[in-house]
Structure formats: structure tokens, C-alpha cells
Design a protein that fits this description.
The chain has one helix and three strands; from the N terminus they run E-E-H-E. By secondary structure, the protein is α+β, with helices and mostly antiparallel strands. The chain has one domain. A three-stranded antiparallel β-sheet has the order 2-1-3, covered by helices on one side. The protein is flat and about 50 Å long. The chain starts with a strand and ends in a 13-residue tail after the last strand.
């Protein structure tokens, strides 16, 4: 049994006040700012990186996703592993 899952996301970016859209940050990673209006969609959870990439290949031709075909992200997680082990504070 595989002890990892691959979670596939797509980010539709909101334009800034000047109408520009920033797709990636300085490090080349897909930028996400939901407070600024970016729309993040969960496309699925897959048992391998290859299956997640196959889904990207099909999804990037669909309406909406085709507007930002380079704004997919795959996150890898271990099954039964705590990702957030501490509390948090809100303001």
C-alpha cells in the first residue's frame, strides 16, 4: 500500500489594482493569495504523482483551467501523519 497521497490544486488568480495577474512568486512557485481574491480549487486526491499529472493534462484544456494552464499544484502528503500539530491564534 502506498503511504502517500498527491493532492491536485488549481489557482485562478485575481488581477491586482492595475489589472496585472501574478501567477508565480519570486521562487517560481504558483502564487496563492485567497484574501486578495485568488480562487483555489481542489481537483482531486491521487495515489501517485503520475496520476495527478495525467489529470493536469486533461484539465488544462477545460474552460477556466485553460485560462491559467500553468497554475496547477501537486502537494504530497503522508497518510495518517499530522500536518498541523500545534494550536493557532486568530486576531
Amino acid at each position: 500500500m502506498n503511504d502517500e497521497v498527491f493532492i491536485l490544486w488549481h489557482v485562478h488568480h485575481a488581477p491586482d489594482d492595475d489589472g496585472r495577474i501574478g501567477h508565480v512568486d519570486e521562487g517560481g512557485e504558483v502564487r496563492i493569495d485567497e484574501e486578495f481574491g485568488d480562487d483555489v480549487k481542489l481537483l482531486g486526491v491521487y495515489s501517485s504523482d503520475a496520476l495527478a499529472k495525467e489529470r493536469i493534462d486533461s484539465a488544462k484544456h477545460l474552460p477556466g483551467f485553460s485560462d491559467e494552464p500553468d497554475c496547477f499544484m501537486i502537494d504530497k502528503y503522508k497518510i495518517n501523519n499530522d500536518e498541523w500539530s500545534e494550536g493557532f491564534v486568530t486576531q
